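Dear Dr. H.,

I hope your travels went smoothly. While you were away I took the liberty of generating a structure for the chain from your last submission, since the lab meeting agenda had it listed for discussion. I wanted you to have the full record in hand beforehand rather than looking at slides cold. The sequence, exactly as received, is reproduced here:
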Amino acid sequence: MNPLTQLFIETDFDDAQFIAQHYEVFSISFFDHVLTEKEYVKASLVCYADVKNNPIKKEQFNNIAKQFNTLYNSLYEQASRQAFVALYNFLVPVISFELYQRYIDNALKERPLCCLLFPSLGCFIRIGYDLTHQCFIAKDFALSSKISAQHVKSMVIDVGLNILQR
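The corresponding predicted structure, in token form, is as follows:
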């Protein structure tokens, strides 16, 4: 088993000390800052459920989804199309690009959320609620293909999304 996969399985996401010891973490978001409760309530679109039957919101959501898709598809390609999806407490190898895309599209609509693991890059993404996701870059990995946090952050900026530090 790949060391990142093993580390992912062992990770307690409620243990801040473990996370800080083993990962560099940052959030990837459509928003340029963490929304306050007041901003959240006032925002017209913070998740897919806000779309309802509104064609303008649907178009806006689809444009945001394209940004996330572009980023995650780039990571998939950089990982030589070798990825796993953590879904319902199972780690599933991605067997096709079409299936990978379906996992992402469903997760962006929060049905269900998932994690994307790229073992050869030493990173994984937790697709989260409210158009904000978390990127975990494993520390102390001696992988020749390991991706740097700075590289991922550059990719995020290039697709028009924002970095939120923890």
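Two observations you may find useful: Residues 3-165 form one domain. The longest helix spans residues 55-78.

With kind regards,
E. W.
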